[in-house]
């Protein structure tokens, strides 16, 4: 453990074996887990609030849970476990109101093919997660004759009717957050970072990068009140982008769409045409071990479907997996918060087959990097979902004892190799 939250901390630096207060390493671990999960809940609740949605119970839990982690408040290991699972429930509600807010403002997402090359004309590249920023940029850039490209978790924005209607939303550029220094350096237009997943820029593009909202970077111009005039003017001074050929990515398989073809999916499962459904998604990162997710999807048999979400999809969303009786084998549901869509689809299938979530021919293989992914994991555990595989490494804030509790209660497993995990999943 490492706790330095009070004045009495050991040696004035931090308690590493047991707290001066009597707190053991497992309670400290659960406090850390709770705070990390709350950060994920905050991200989704923040976006929902910007769009006019809030949930009083989520807000109240944030206060209660943070209070619980104060010095000398709660030393009960079992109660802290309950708090962590409650955090998962509140994250589910936060994702639900964000989904409703996005649909009310931008329409229900629909499957959409997205161009990944470049088109002639001055352009802005927008990254992050905030669709309201994206909408306002599109409005202002359209009036100025400037094109807009998405990056990272903005890709799903192409699937929302009120965003895709803009003719100046011309394509998607680049991949996930960890590649942005290389990709932003090579992009010849201006760049706008809207929320999390921004990196300190290289000097080579710092003068054409901007931030807005909650995102801020040293030496980078910050835009207030969504007035993107400076971003657009910078794009115009940089000149027209050269034309460049590209491929196609498909996104927008929101639960509303998937449930509209539920009869086809159910029939394909009942007749054996769809043997198994894999949810492979989460965060992306730079570790070489993340090639596991590419290997896994490449080796998943042709009679199986892959659902994905979050930026982890960039490990394999360029693959051509084909379809099963017209049902695409790769279904990109959107941003990480669209884990809510995956949950809705799973719940609907369980209802049709009159079984529990754990009885479905469904396996979850997740990648984690930061706090939002942790909150989603807590949501899945709150729902009682078992046999989840997670990687590429064990979260450092979980002590062996806490991890053992999760493994015993939920059979939470670490990924091994693509070959071994597929063998164990499919039998």
TrEMBL record:
The catalytic activity of this protein is classed by the Enzyme Commission as 1.7.99.1
A Pfam cross-reference name? Prismane
Which InterPro entries does this UniProt record tie to the protein?
HCP/CODH (IPR004137), Hydroxylam_reduct (IPR010048), Prismane-like_a/b-sand (IPR016099), Prismane-like_sf (IPR011254), Prismane_a-bundle (IPR016100)
State where hybrid [4Fe-2O-2S] cluster binds. Answer: 129, 153, 197, 283, 311, 336, 370, 372
The reaction(s) annotated as catalysed by this protein in its Swiss-Prot or TrEMBL entry are: A + NH4(+) + H2O = hydroxylamine + AH2 + H(+)
- Residue span of the signal peptide, if any? none
Example GO molecular function? metal ion binding
Cofactor requirements of the protein: hybrid [4Fe-2O-2S] cluster; [4Fe-4S] cluster
Kindly list the positions annotated as binding [4Fe-4S] cluster. 3, 6, 15, 21
- Gene Ontology cellular-component annotations: cytoplasm
- Provide the primary localization: cytoplasm
Q: For this UniProt record, give its keywords in alphabetical order, as a comma-separated list.
A: 4Fe-4S, Cytoplasm, Iron, Iron-sulfur, Metal-binding, Oxidoreductase
Question: What's this protein's function?
Answer: Catalyzes the reduction of hydroxylamine to form NH(3) and H(2)O.
Q: What is this protein called?
A: Hydroxylamine reductase
Species the sequence originates in: Sporotomaculum syntrophicum
**What's the source species' lineage?**
Bacteria, Bacillati, Bacillota, Clostridia, Eubacteriales
């Amino acid at each position: 453990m490492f706790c330095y939250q009070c004045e009495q901390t050991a040696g004035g630096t931090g308690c590493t074996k047991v707290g001066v207060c009597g707190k053991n390493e497992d309670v400290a671990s659960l406090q850390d887990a709770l705070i990390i999960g709350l950060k994920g809940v905050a991200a989704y609740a923040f976006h929902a609030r910007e769009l006019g949605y809030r949930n009083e119970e989520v807000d109240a839990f944030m206060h209660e849970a943070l209070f619980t982690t104060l010095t000398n408040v709660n030393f009960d290991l079992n109660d802290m476990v309950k708090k962590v699972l409650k955090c998962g429930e509140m994250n589910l509600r936060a994702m639900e109101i964000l989904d409703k807010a996005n649909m009310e403002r931008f329409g229900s997402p629909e499957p959409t093919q997205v161009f990944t090359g470049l088109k002639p004309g001055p352009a802005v590249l927008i990254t992050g997660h905030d669709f309201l920023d994206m909408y306002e940029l599109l409005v202002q850039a359209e009036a100025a004759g400037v094109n807009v490209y998405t990056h990272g978790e903005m890709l799903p924005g192409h699937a929302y009717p009120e965003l895709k209607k803009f003719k100046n939303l011309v394509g998607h550029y680049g991949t996930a957050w960890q590649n942005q220094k290389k990709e932003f350096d090579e992009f010849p237009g201006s760049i706008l970072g809207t929320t999390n997943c921004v990196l300190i820029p290289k000097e080579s593009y710092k003068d054409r990068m901007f931030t807005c909202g909650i995102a801020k970077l040293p030496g980078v111009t910050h835009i207030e009140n969504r007035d993107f005039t400076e971003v657009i003017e910078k794009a115009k001074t940089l000149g027209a982008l050269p034309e460049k050929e590209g491929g196609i990515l498909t996104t927008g398989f929101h639960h509303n769409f998937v449930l509209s073809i539920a009869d086809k999916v159910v029939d394909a499962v009942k007749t054996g045409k769809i043997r198994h459904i894999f949810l492979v998604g989460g965060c992306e990162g730079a570790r070489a071990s993340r090639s596991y997710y590419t290997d896994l999807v490449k080796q998943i048999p042709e009679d199986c479907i892959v659902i994905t979400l979050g930026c982890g999809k960039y490990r394999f969303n360029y693959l051509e997996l084909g379809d099963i009786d017209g049902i695409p084998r790769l279904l990109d549901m959107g941003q990480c918060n669209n884990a809510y869509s995956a949950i809705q689809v799973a719940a609907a299938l369980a209802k049709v087959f009159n079984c529990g979530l754990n009885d479905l021919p469904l396996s979850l293989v997740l990648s984690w990097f930061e706090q939002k992914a942790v909150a989603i994991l807590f949501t899945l555990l709150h729902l009682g979902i078992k046999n989840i595989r997670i990687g590429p490494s064990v979260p450092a804030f979980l002590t062996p004892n806490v991890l053992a509790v999760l493994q015993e209660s939920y059979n939470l497993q670490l990924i091994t190799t693509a070959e071994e995990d597929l063998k164990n999943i499919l039998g």
